[in-house]
Q: What sequence folds into this?
């Protein structure tokens, strides 16, 4: 059986029992222990980011005078040690979650909005609009994203806002390609034609009929995109092009410890572990959501 | 097929042109300039202006762009603004280094990735499968620059298997660790794709037939199943190439390897346009050609595929 609608009824009796495709998806997610773990990690990290000032035992920006401005190894006092300025690495990792998660969630929201708008326009209107947007998507995808990310950050000037914008711009082409393809397909589907015959206008057709069709795929792309954006932000900060000191960010902390790897490994190791855990959680969540929401993409 | 190749290459021209224009426009809007950097922060504005004029940075943008593109088209490539080295000479020295690294990393990621993917699929939902899938998930989730640092810390400083970072005398031993680091993410990615495609194939009728007629497990896996997943796997390797190039940039940066990636990153940070533009064009071309090679490989893997 070829599944062509996007919210398929995999459970034949579901419609009668009043369970929607979303309900089925929710049931699948709830039953998956891995999904529970990944979701808990994400929720915990969001809480850590929000309550960073309450959780961090030390001031992330101020050195502990007792260790006299040098790197000290992990101890009962400083769980992750201190960096070469004598600042508590644990507290800095806790505060670093703010930048990472904010940039991850925020930039991908921008990607989604840009991708949806351009993708719907290209797919729905076709003609020269489609040609123009499609070529732009192609150019962006032929451009290694790191290169574009660096060029954008250098040209806007390093900083938090830049990270949002650059990562948002880098991410939209994938979303747009998906939305365009889906809009093209749905444009000629019977239910959209039916709605048009009943007198729906373009805007209503796009947002009431075409957009809900791509929503499941978009949720998956968003989850994986957040993980990617967190790595992107860390990479920019690592190269000195992201969030600027004294705001702590994980990439910047890894760069700080780079020259002291042999003598003070803890400065670089802990922020890297933090990045890995967050990104694993988002990627895992993406996989689970894909299996639950979008069977056509399963296994990709 | 020749017609198909020519057509594809012709289609690539506007994309490559677009990429070069995009880079140029973005780069000239960048604040700060190479002249200031060459003369230092204390240089007088007059001196900076004079150097800018001498370097041609005060010419109208279109003229600057055309000058760079003329060099690209004639194959001369001109000189770097910052180091005054000939770009062509630099690329000649660096390209082999990057290619060696990339080929090693690709070979590693393909062999390990396909191997792990097949093993995981044949043990679906058992402990080994779950373990391997967690490892590969970690592999695609860890930032490559951090992973590179950890590898340097463990292998070079603690275990002392390799004396130093960089490429030393250029012998193979210096390439192995960076190639391993660069190849890990791709290997993890390929393993996941291989597994899911294997899972689909081993449920097909022809696999059951092969089992039923008493073929050994190994023959069924290698000759019947594996051959049928090559197309999706090769497709994904091609699609993943852009992030492979990104990874190569960062790996070269952290390992201090004098390849194209380090060159590009340096030129970018110096706003060295005569170096940047050819490098961006080179990267985009590489990406497009690699995708074309992938499309042509389809025909080799599956002779039923024809090009038109």
A:
């Amino acid at each position: 059986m070829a599944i062509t609608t996007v919210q398929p009824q995999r459970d034949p009796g579901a419609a009668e029992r009043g369970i929607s495709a979303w309900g089925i998806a929710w049931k699948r997610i709830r039953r998956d222990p891995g999904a529970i773990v990944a979701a808990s990690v994400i929720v915990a990290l969001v809480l850590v980011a929000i309550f960073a000032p309450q959780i961090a035992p030390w001031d992330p920006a101020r050195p502990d005078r007792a260790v006299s401005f040098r790197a000290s190894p992990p101890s009962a006092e400083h769980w992750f040690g201190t960096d070469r300025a004598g600042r508590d690495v644990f507290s800095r990792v806790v505060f670093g979650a703010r930048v990472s998660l904010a940039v991850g969630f925020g930039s991908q929201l921008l990607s989604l909005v840009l991708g949806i708008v351009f993708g719907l326009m290209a797919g729905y209107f076709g003609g020269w609009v489609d040609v123009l947007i499609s070529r732009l998507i192609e150019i962006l995808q032929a451009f290694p994203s790191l290169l574009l990310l660096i060029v954008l950050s250098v040209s806007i000037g390093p900083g938090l806002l830049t990270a949002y914008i650059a990562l948002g711009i880098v991410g939209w082409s994938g979303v747009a390609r998906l939305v365009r393809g889906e809009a093209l397909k749905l444009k000629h589907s019977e239910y959209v034609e039916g709605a048009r015959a009943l007198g729906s206008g373009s805007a209503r057709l796009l947002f009431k009929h075409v957009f809900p069709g791509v929503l499941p795929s978009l949720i998956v792309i968003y989850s994986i995109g957040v993980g990617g954006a967190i790595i992107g932000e860390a990479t920019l900060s690592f190269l000195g092009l992201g969030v600027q000191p004294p705001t702590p960010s994980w990439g910047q902390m890894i760069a700080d410890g780079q020259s002291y790897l042999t003598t003070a490994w803890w400065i670089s190791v802990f922020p890297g572990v933090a990045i890995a855990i967050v990104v694993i959680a988002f990627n895992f969540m993406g996989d689970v959501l894909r299996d639950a929401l979008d069977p056509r993409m399963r296994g990709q | 097929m020749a017609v198909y190749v020519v057509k594809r290459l012709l289609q690539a021209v506007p994309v490559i042109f677009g990429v070069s224009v995009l880079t140029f426009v973005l780069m000239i809007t960048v604040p700060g300039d190479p002249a200031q950097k060459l003369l230092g922060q204390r240089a007088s504005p007059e001196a900076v202006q004079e150097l800018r004029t001498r370097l041609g940075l005060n010419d109208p943008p279109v003229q600057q762009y055309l000058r760079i593109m003329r060099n690209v088209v004639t194959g001369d490539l001109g000189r770097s603004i910052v180091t005054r080295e000939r770009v062509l000479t630099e690329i000649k020295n660096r390209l082999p280094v990057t290619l060696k690294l990339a080929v090693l990393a690709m070979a590693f990621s393909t062999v390990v990735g396909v191997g792990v993917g097949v093993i995981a699929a044949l043990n679906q939902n058992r402990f080994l499968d779950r373990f391997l899938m967690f490892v590969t998930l970690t592999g695609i989730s860890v930032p490559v620059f951090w992973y590179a640092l950890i590898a340097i810390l463990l292998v070079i400083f603690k275990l002392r298997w390799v004396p130093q970072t960089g490429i030393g005398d250029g012998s193979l031993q210096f390439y192995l660790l960076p190639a391993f680091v660069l190849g890990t993410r791709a290997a993890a990615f390929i393993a996941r794709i291989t597994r899911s495609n294997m899972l689909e194939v081993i449920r097909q009728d022809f696999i059951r037939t092969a089992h039923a007629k008493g073929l050994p497990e190994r023959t069924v896996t290698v000759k019947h199943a594996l051959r049928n997943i090559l197309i999706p796997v090769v497709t994904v390797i091609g699609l993943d190439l852009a992030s492979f190039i990104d990874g190569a940039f960062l790996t070269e940066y952290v390992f201090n390897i004098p390849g194209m990636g380090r060159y590009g990153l340096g030129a970018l940070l110096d706003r060295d346009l005569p170096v940047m533009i050819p490098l961006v064009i080179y990267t985009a071309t590489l990406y497009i050609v690699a995708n074309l090679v992938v499309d042509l490989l389809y025909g080799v893997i599956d002779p039923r595929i024809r090009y038109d």
